[in-house]
Design a protein that fits this description.
Elements: H1 2-78, H2 82-101, E1 104-106, E2 119-125, E3 135-140, E4 143-145, E5 148-151, E6 153-158
Parallel strand pairs: 2-6
Antiparallel strand pairs: 1-4, 3-6, 4-5
Helix pairs in contact: 1-2
Length: 159
């Protein structure tokens, strides 16, 4: 009889210990899977944050350069010599290339139907032969960045 107890006790203990170890291993595996999923989610959130910061940085840079671009367009209108006009044209073109490379695009205005989503009308004028709500003049160029409005065009509209 004592021999039977000795044989049963290690078997029972072994089975019990095995179940504990298996449960611990399963718990650790589940914990590892959870942390792996959390890390994947963190990487995605971080990637989105980096992309958003990059996009926002481009927008800030473009908005900061817009007054300079406006000044170049104004300078072009007032230069008197052909050499000066050519120099300003080159600068306008170079800034235009930079803006395009950053994803900015000019909003078409003159001759277009007035759209309050992309145009800011500051003046109206009755013009014979012109239908109402057509952009007559553009006083300040408007821009979009990857389809998002960053500045509407300032315009005069027919009434």
């Amino acid at each position: 009889m004592p021999k039977k107890q000795v044989d049963e006790q290690p078997n029972d203990g072994f089975a019990f210990e095995f179940e504990q170890i298996k449960k611990l291993a399963d718990d650790n595996l589940n914990l590892a899977k959870y942390h792996k999923a959390e890390f994947e989610n963190f990487k995605k959130r971080n990637q989105d944050a980096v992309s958003n910061a990059y996009r926002d940085g481009k927008e800030i840079a473009i908005v900061q350069f817009l007054p300079l671009v406006d000044s170049l367009h104004e300078a072009y209108k007032s230069v008197e010599t052909e050499n000066d006009r050519l120099g300003v044209e080159i600068l306008i073109r170079k800034f235009g290339q930079i803006m395009v490379s950053l994803g900015a695009e000019e909003i078409s205005a003159i001759g277009q139907p007035f759209d309050p989503n992309i145009h800011n009308a500051v003046a109206v004028e009755a013009v014979e032969g012109k239908p109402a709500d057509i952009v007559l003049e553009e006083w300040q160029k408007g821009y979009k960045l990857n389809g998002k409005m960053i500045r509407p065009s300032t315009v005069k509209v027919s009434k």
